[in-house]
Amino acid sequence: MFSPYVVSVPVSGAVIIGKDLFGKDVSIAFTPNAHGVILGSTGVGKTTLAKSIVVDLIRSGFRIIAIDCEWHWIEFCRRFGFDIIELDKVVFDPFCIRSSDELEVIHNFLIGTSLFNLSREDVLTLYDVCSKVFERNGAVSFNDVISYCPRYGGLRVLLKELEFFMRGKQIIDLDLLNKHILLQLPVGGDTEVHRFIIYLFLAQLFAKYMKFITDTPHTFVFIDEAHRLTRGASQFLVWALRTVRKHGFGLWLISQDPHSLDRETYSLTANAILLPGPRKYVDSLKAYFRLSDEDEELLLSHDRGYGIYIRQGVGSVRFRVKVHEEVLT
Ligand SMILES: Nc1ncnc2c1ncn2[C@@H]1O[C@H](COP(=O)(O)OP(=O)(O)O)[C@@H](O)[C@H]1O
Ligand SMILES: [Mg+2]
Predict the structure, then answer these.
(1) What is the pLDDT of residues 70-96, one digit of tens each?
(2) Ligand nearest 68 Cα, by number?
(3) How far, in Å, are 65, 67, 110, 191, 206 from residue 95 at the CA level?
(4) Which of 34, 17, 106, 1 is nearest to 313 (CA)?
(5) Residue closest by Cα to atom 3 of ligand 1
(6) Ligand 1 mutation target, pool 17, 19, 39, 48, most atoms within 8 A of CB
(7) Which of 202-216, 267-281, 293-307, 312-326 shows the lowest mean pLDDT across its residues?
(8) What is the 3-state secondary structure (H, E, C) of 263-288?
(9) What's the angle, vertex CA 128, arms to CA 122 and CA 132, rounded to 5?
(10) pLDDT tens-digit series, residues 203-233
(11) Measured from the CA of 254, which atom of ligand 1 is nearest?
(12) Closest ligand to 70 CA?
């Protein structure tokens, strides 16, 4: 219903990513929870373009969460004043949501562990251990969980893997994070552990933001090298896209391998930026996008500096990439 007292505030940011072949600006409307993918082969400028977009989003007042496992973002994020979580040095406590609500803690914990395909028995054991730890300490921390269940079969593998990342490190309090955030995943490391950490990190951030829902700026999450997270669990990013959207965030996935993303990923992302790559890459793109001969030619014949922007249900445009100088390394 129309109300003269309600002022609708435009929340979309239009970000220019280049010029079309007639010299007209090509821009992306960053409406809240508009998801996207940036695809292209290695070295073609995916990360650079993403950073350039991030610069504009920051200037338009959006909050950014970057997730990176390659150390390609840290210098940029330092320059732009991000809060940085370097998981080699510090951790956020994945098991303690610092909530006084025991069920909430355990719930998050259990959904997280489901990413490991734990048996029902293991999950019940974990639940049991968590409840006991909680009863005793009023919080659930990883170290406590380890010391309470060191020798449960399937859990042992999980805990061993996680221990490498968690034990004895300084714990960051997510409540202290107020700016843009970089989650710097450790180099190498187990894909499942990365998924687990990302899951709980996002779950905890959502819980935190929900508390302050009124002054939470619109947020875009960028996951670079997203194909590294899908091995053995292509549904993970589908889950992420759905969950993130529920909270009004937009999620942008950057990947060099179109097939590594589940088909459903593409139906959940309204925007796609396709950068060049070799024949094999272009052929795999064709499984998800309708490309004209000119599109194909553009993708095959330029190393860098050109791309195709596709807005689902609207159309596509070939463009010359334009990035901010300050993101070039
Ligand atoms: N539009 C561009 N103009 C000039 N140099 C670029 C451009 N995009 C990327 N580069 C440079 O190319 C190199 C690889 O870019 P990067 O974004 O890391 O590629 P990718 O993430 O696709 O592997 C970097 O040194 C970057 O500075
Ligand atoms: Mg890159």
Answers:
(1) 999 999 999 999 999 988 787 776 665
(2) 2
(3) 21, 20, 10, 19, 15
(4) 34
(5) 305
(6) 48
(7) 202-216
(8) HHHHHHCCEEEECCCCHHHHHHHCCC
(9) 145
(10) 778 777 777 666 667 889 999 999 988 877 7
(11) 21
(12) 2
Beta-carbon neighbour count of residue 197 at 10 Å?
24
**What span, in angstroms and rounded, lies between the C-alpha atoms of 171 and 117?**
27
User: Which ligand 1 atom minimizes the distance to the CA of 50?
Assistant: 17
The string of DSSP codes covering 202-233 is HHHHHHHHHHTGGGPPPEEEEETTGGGG-TT-
Q: Which tokens hold the place of 32?
A: 């809240």
CB distance 304 to ligand 1 below 6 Å: yes
Residue with tokens 């508390």: 211
Q: Is the CB of 52 under 6 A from ligand 1?
A: no
* DSSP helix/strand/coil, 12: coil
Give dist(CA 40, CA 127) in Å, integer. 42
Indicate whether residue 305 lines ligand 1 (CB < 6 A): yes
* pLDDT (mean) for 145-172: 68
pTM of the entire structure?
0.85
The CATH fold of domain 13-62+217-327: Rossmann fold (3.40.50)
Question: How do strand 271-274 and strand 250-255 relate by DSSP bridges?
Answer: unpaired
> Ligand 1 in contact with 40 (CB < 6 A)?
yes
The token pair that represents 196 in the structure block: 């687990």
- Looking at ligand 1, which residue's alpha carbon is closest to its atom 14? 43
Counting from 1 in the atom list of ligand 1, the atom nearest the Cα of 51 is 17
**Is it the case that residue 29 has pLDDT exceeding 70?**
yes
